[in-house]
Amino acid sequence: MSALQATCLIAVAIIGTLVVVTRDPLRQAAVAGIFGLALAVLFLSVQAPDVALSQMTVGAIVVPVLVLLAMAKIREHDE
Amino acid sequence: MSRRVRYALALVALAALGATLVAAVVDLEPFGHYPGPYGDVLAKVVPGERHTGQLVAAVTFDYRGFDTLGEELILFTAACGCVALLRVRRRERGDEAGAPARPVPSLAARALGGALVGPVLVLSAYVVIHGHLTPGGGFSGGVIGAGALLLAYAAGQSVRLHRVGSIELLEVTEAIGAGGFVLVALGGLIAVGATLQNFLPLGTSGMLLSAGTIPIGNVAVGIEVAGAGALIIAEFLEQALLEERE
Question: Do residue A50 and residue B135 have CB atoms under 8 angstroms apart?
Answer without folding.
Answer: yes
